[in-house]
Amino acid sequence: MSEKPRPKSQIFDLLRAYHASRENVRLLLEMSGMSDYEKVGFIDAWQEEMADFFAENGYCFACNRTLQRCGCEEPLRSSVPA
Ligand SMILES: [Zn+2]
Q1: Torsion of CA 11, 13, 18, 19, to 10 degrees
Q2: How many whole angstroms separate alpha carbon 16 and alpha carbon 70?
Q3: CA neighbours within 13 Å on the CB side: how many for 70?
Q4: What are the tens digits of pLDDT across the range 19-69?
Q5: Which of the listed residues 27, 63, 68, 76 has the most CB atoms within 10 Å of its CB?
Q6: What is the pTM of this model?
Q7: What separation in Å is there between the alpha carbon of 47 and the centre of ligand 1?
Q8: CA distance 55 to 57
Q9: CA-to-CA dists, residue 65 to 3, 5, 14, 44, 77, angstroms
Q10: Could you tell me where the DSSP H helices lie in the chain?
Q11: How close is the Cα of 31 to the center of ligand 1, in Å?
């Protein structure tokens, strides 16, 4: 293996951003007056965005491992457009 340093703290930065974002989403949904159906769609879209955000930074959103070490059988994120 190479001696490329692993950015160990990066996952914590990502998780912090994730938790802040989740809190924002929660507040937004509370005030939105959306139906449950609309909320589910909104959360799905948000999770997709977070998965992209994690992937762009080299981490798996589902297991929080680096993409190289990810062992998810079914990755949360698909690059195939629906
Ligand atoms: Zn994974």
Answers
A1: 110
A2: 20
A3: 18
A4: 999 999 999 999 999 999 999 999 999 999 999 999 999 999 999 999 999
A5: 76
A6: 0.76
A7: 14
A8: 5
A9: 18, 15, 12, 21, 14
A10: 10-32, 36-56
A11: 33
Q: Which amino acid is at 32?
A: S
Q: Please name which of 70, 30, 32 lies closest in space to residue 54, comparing C-alpha atoms.
A: 70
Structure tokens at 36: 């449950």
Using the mean position of ligand 1's atoms as its centre, give its distance from the Cα of residue 66 in Å. 8
With tokens 């160990």, the residue in question is 8
Q: How far is the CA of 6 from the centre of ligand 1 (A)?
A: 17
Contacts of 18 (CB under 8 A, 6+ apart): 50, 53, 54
Which tokens go with 42? 């909104």
DSSP state, residue 59: B
